[in-house]
Task: structure prediction
Amino acid sequence: MSQSLSKIFVHAVWHIKTTSPQIQMEDRKNLYSYMGGILKQLECIPICINGTGNHVHMLFVLSKNHSLVKVMSTVKIASSRWLKTIGDRYKSFAWQLGYGAFSVCESIRERTINYIKNQEEHHKKRSFKDEYLQILKQHHIDFDIDYLFRD
Result:
């Protein structure tokens, strides 16, 4: 083939360190916009970014030119640095080292978008830990529960 083509939807999820300050409601929209800008710089297509005070969900189309690990590392490092510039309340802000990344097929893209958009409502009933464990089980991912939620 003379051209490389791909369309890989990725649903990524990650959490703040337990010692980190929570992300304030008034800062989230700007944070998510900033993350979307980073994705665009990496030739990815941001579709939906949302979360709560302690974690983020992001649906995007992965660039054919960058690895998932590079995209996730860049988004997390840059967004952490950016948060530290907007106020002293974030001077000790940090994301946990890991993340979850899951493929999403076109047929459930809209359902995934709605799920991400409704994070605040969703977490009135379910903890992040329970949510994340469910996602891992749905995707048949093996994990070590003792290591999973460590900083």
Remarks:
- Helices lie at 25-41, 68-85, 109-117, 119-122, 128-138, 145-148.
- The chain has a mean pLDDT of 92.
